[in-house]
């Protein structure tokens, strides 16, 4: 894809193209880009690349407190952020759409999203920012897919299907081998002022995106707040209920046994060696070292869908 991207950018004089090889170079990239005062900042990569760029964009203050709207191209192994913003298919076609919007006026296409700020809660610690967090069995599943399935070199769709079959085999049939995802570790999830949930969970999702897995949402949650959370207990029936509800777009619209929906502005995750993944980057809660999730002020993004 990169040769095509370079050729396209070289043929359009209103695109300033800056390539980085590591996330450590993103800060210098944004400092340089800020000098040209861009209309739109376009990120070409997967969710992990977007997460690193958003963290530096928000915390680095390279644009004097007024960053340009961010457009995300559909690239990388996963890109839920691009999907939420209406960017699907060919990244070059998406970039052409960004150009058209930038030339004709971006105002009607700008939307705002809060970001998840992940930290250990200590004063002065630098949070990591993102928009989609997966934990409990979901984190184990993502790591299993990344470490065991992706190396097989199969197309993404087939890789995700094989991963789903492996997860169902372990949960429903109770099969446990080193070639399958491990059992989820116990954890405690607390939402400020709304109590806590203890146990083993097959799914833990926290997001500020408007779309969750399978196109579902937490619109039916009993409380309000920018952090949307879905927790599914590690039992076959709750997981099947959640999956079927997601397929038919009914997740969050009604109470389901073993499936919890909440909205709020602060979440605390505790456990022993319990992993969570924020937009591709792994973090771990441990004994006496919880993970704290809060939200940022709204950040502008460019919506590509009509």
Largest sheet: 6 strands, antiparallel
Radius of gyration: 20 Å
Unreliable segments (pLDDT under 50, ≥5 consecutive)? 218-222
Classified by CATH, the class of the largest domain is Mainly Beta
The overall number of domains is 2
Number of helices: 8
Alpha-beta content class? alpha+beta
H/E topology pattern = HHEHEHHEEEEHHEEEEHEEEEEE
Walk me through what this model shows:
This protein has 306 residues and is an alpha+beta fold. The chain has two domains: 2-113, 3-Layer(aba) Sandwich (Rossmann fold), CATH 3.40.50; 132-278, Tumour Suppressor Smad4. Helix content is 30%, strand content 26%. Strands 5-4-15-12-7-8 form a six-stranded antiparallel β-sheet. A six-stranded antiparallel β-sheet has the order 11-10-9-6-13-14. It is globular, with a radius of gyration of 20 Å. It starts with a helix and ends with a strand. 38% of the residues are buried.
Please render the helix and strand layout as text:
Elements: H1 2-10, H2 26-34, E1 41-45, H3 47-60, E2 70-74, H4 80-84, H5 91-104, E3 110-113, E4 116-119, E5 128-130, E6 132-135, H6 137-149, H7 156-172, E7 187-191, E8 196-199, E9 201-207, E10 227-233, H8 236-247, E11 259-264, E12 266-271, E13 274-278, E14 281-285, E15 291-295, E16 299-302
Parallel strand pairs: 1-2
Antiparallel strand pairs: 3-16, 4-5, 4-15, 6-9, 6-13, 7-8, 7-12, 9-10, 10-11, 12-15, 13-14
Briefly summarize what is shown:
The chain is an alpha+beta fold and 306 residues long. It has eight helices and 16 strands. The chain has two domains: 112 residues, Rossmann fold, CATH 3.40.50; 147 residues, Tumour Suppressor Smad4, CATH 2.60.200.
């Amino acid at each position: 894809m990169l040769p095509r991207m370079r050729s396209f950018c070289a043929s359009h004089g209103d695109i300033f193209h800056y390539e980085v090889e590591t996330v450590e170079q993103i800060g210098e990239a944004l400092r340089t880009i800020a000098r040209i005062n861009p209309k739109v900042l376009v990120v070409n990569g997967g969710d992990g690349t977007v997460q690193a760029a958003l963290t530096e964009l928000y915390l680095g203050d390279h644009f004097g407190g007024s960053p340009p709207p961010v457009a995300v191209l559909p690239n990388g192994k996963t890109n839920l952020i691009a999907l939420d913003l209406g960017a699907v298919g060919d990244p070059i076609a998406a970039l052409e759409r960004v150009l058209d919007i930038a030339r004709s006026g971006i105002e009607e296409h700008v939307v705002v999203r809060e970001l998840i700020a992940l930290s250990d809660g200590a004063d002065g610690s630098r949070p990591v920012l993102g928009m989609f967090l997966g934990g409990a069995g979901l984190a184990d599943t993502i790591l299993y897919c990344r470490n065991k399935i992706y190396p097989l070199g199969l197309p993404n769709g087939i890789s995700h299907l094989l991963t789903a079959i492996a997860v169902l085999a372990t949960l429903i049939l109770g099969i446990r081998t080193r070639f399958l995802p491990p059992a989820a570790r116990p954890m405690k999830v607390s939402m400020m002022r709304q109590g806590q949930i203890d146990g083993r969970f097959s799914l833990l999702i926290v997001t500020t995106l408007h779309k969750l897995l399978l196109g579902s949402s937490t619109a039916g949650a009993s409380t309000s707040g920018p952090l949307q959370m879905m927790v599914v207990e590690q039992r076959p029936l709750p997981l099947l209920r959640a999956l079927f509800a997601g397929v038919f777009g009914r997740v969050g619209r009604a109470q389901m046994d073993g499936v919890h929906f909440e909205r709020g502005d602060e979440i605390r995750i505790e456990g022993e060696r319990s992993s969570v993944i924020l937009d591709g980057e792994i973090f771990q809660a441990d004994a006496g070292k919880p993970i704290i999730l809060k939200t940022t002020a709204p950040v502008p993004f460019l919506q590509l869908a009509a």
